[in-house]
């Protein structure tokens, strides 16, 4: 049943947010700490466990994979509701600190990622697999 | 007739949003293929169109939620809101290869810490150079350079003035937009190829919206790895901002 997959996803999502909220409260911050990340980890573990136990029929998987494939459309909708006007109206301080922050981080990313090469001797050009059949040639 | 159609669209907000976004993605796919010969990713164009529509919506309504403030497109707010966004992000974890994710565990944490501290220092320094030289304002604007959620949360915790808060949010928004649009352009320079590199990117670039859209426009397969790390970013920023980072700035300013 396809709903089993979506329900599994929903349970992981809710549990992750719940743990994130608990973590936030324990640490004394007023926000959720990594709830979505925790939910992702839960889903990864759930998948590994259920695959091993042979409890994951194709249709159940599709219930999750549909939402994974809906990711880009959701992101487009997210872009369409950004507060562009106040972002652009922030003036030079906002603009400069954002550009400088992104630039600094970009250099740090480039440096760290260049360090990866020597350690990894597998060819970089191997296409990476992903298991969502709904993405076959979608993007 | 037009009114009936408008009413139907407004009353079925989420369904309208699916149709509108589907159309945007279709148009961007065509633009990608016909005008750029596939060089610019269709998703990247779709996101830019989304941002442009957000600007248009913002100027039309004067609200803060872009296109979603127009009653006809209210469903966009639900479709692209935190709930469905996080639901879809979690779903992408289903594609994560656990071995790949584990390989990058430690570097992901390092990137996450750097991704909080570096933009904070840069943001606070620029705030200082523009005359915001008190510890509270410097911290709030620096926190805004981490993400646009960390900024106001930190500002509220340490008692920043509303104009500094607004500046801090604007800083975070501009950052998110630069990451969304800039990532596919800078992908080669950033070395965005492997799951590990995506996790480094997720930790350092921060902002979930920026990372998720930036990676989507670069390579859909990298999304779960970047998002996995980036989702811890806001929490970490909200943890460090009003505490450790604020005390550090206070010690330096005095």
Please, could you describe this protein's structure?
- The complex is a heterodimer of chains A (139) and B (254).
- Chain A is mostly helical and 139 residues long.
- Chain A has two domains: 1-80, no CATH class; 88-121.
- Helices cover 71% and strands 0% of the residues of chain A.
- Chain A contains seven helices and no strands.
- In chain A, α1 packs across α2 (35-52) and α1 (2-27) packs across α3.
- Chain B is mostly helical and 254 residues long.
- Chain B has two domains: 2-80, no CATH class; 98-253, no CATH class.
- Helices cover 78% and strands 0% of the residues of chain B.
- Chain B contains 14 helices and no strands.
- Chain B has helices at residues 2-11, 13-34, 42-61, 74-79, 82-92, 98-103, 105-129, 135-144, 150-158, 162-190, 195-205, 208-218, 223-230, 233-253.
- In chain B, α3 (42-61) packs across α12 (208-218) and α11 (195-205) packs antiparallel against α12 (208-218).
- The model of chain B has no long low-confidence stretch (mean pLDDT 85).
- Classes of the chains: A mainly alpha (139), B mainly alpha (254).
- Chains A and B meet through α1, α2, α3, α4 and α5 of A and α2, α3, α4, α5 and α7 of B.
- Chain B: Keywords: Membrane, Transmembrane, Transmembrane helix.
- Chain B: This is Malonate transporter subunit MadM.
- Chain B: InterPro entries: Mal/Na_symporter_MadM, Mal/Na_symporter_MadM_N.
- Chain B: Residues 7-252 form the Malonate/sodium symporter MadM subunit N-terminal domain.
- Chain B: It comes from Variovorax humicola.
- Chain A: The chain crosses the membrane at residues 7-27, 33-50, 62-81, 93-112.
């Amino acid at each position: 049943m396809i709903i089993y997959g979506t329900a599994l996803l929903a349970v992981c999502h809710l549990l992750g947010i719940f743990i994130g909220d608990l973590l936030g409260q324990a640490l004394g911050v007023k926000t959720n700490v990594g709830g979505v990340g925790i939910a992702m980890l839960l889903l990864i573990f759930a998948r590994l466990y259920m695959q091993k136990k042979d409890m994951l029929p194709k249709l159940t998987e599709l219930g999750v994979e549909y939402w994974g494939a809906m990711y880009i459309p959701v992101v487009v909708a997210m872009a369409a509701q950004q507060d562009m006007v106040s972002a652009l109206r922030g003036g030079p301080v906002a603009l400069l600190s954002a550009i400088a922050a992104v630039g600094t981080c970009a250099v740090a990313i480039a440096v760290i990622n260049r360090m990866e090469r020597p350690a990894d001797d597998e060819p970089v050009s191997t296409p990476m697999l992903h298991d969502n059949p709904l993405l076959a040639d979608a993007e | 007739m037009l009114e009936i159609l408008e009413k139907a669209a407004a009353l079925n907000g989420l369904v309208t949003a699916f149709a509108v976004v589907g159309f945007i993605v279709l148009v961007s796919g065509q633009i990608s293929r016909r005008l750029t010969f596939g060089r610019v990713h269709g998703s990247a164009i779709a996101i830019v169109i989304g941002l442009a529509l957000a600007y248009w919506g913002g100027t039309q309504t004067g609200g803060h939620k872009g296109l979603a403030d127009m009653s006809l497109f209210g469903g966009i707010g639900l479709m692209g809101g935190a709930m469905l966004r996080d639901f879809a992000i979690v779903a992408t974890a289903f594609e994560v290869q656990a071995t790949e994710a584990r390989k990058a565990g430690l570097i992901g944490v390092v990137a996450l810490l750097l991704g909080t501290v570096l933009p904070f220092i840069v943001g606070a320094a620029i705030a200082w150079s523009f005359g915001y030289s008190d510890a509270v304002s410097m911290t709030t604007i620096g926190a805004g350079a981490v993400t646009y959620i960390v900024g106001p949360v930190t500002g509220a915790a340490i008692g920043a003035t509303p104009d500094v808060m607004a500046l801090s949010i604007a800083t975070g928004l501009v950052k998110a937009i630069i990451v969304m649009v800039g990532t596919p352009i800078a992908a080669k320079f950033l070395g965005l190829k492997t799951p590990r590199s995506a996790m480094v990117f997720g930790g350092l670039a921060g902002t979930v919206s920026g990372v998720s859209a930036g990676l989507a426009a670069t390579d859909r397969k990298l999304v779960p790895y970047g998002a996995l790390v980036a989702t811890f970013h806001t929490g970490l920023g909200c943890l460090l901002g009003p505490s450790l980072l604020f005390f550090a700035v206070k010690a330096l300013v005095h």
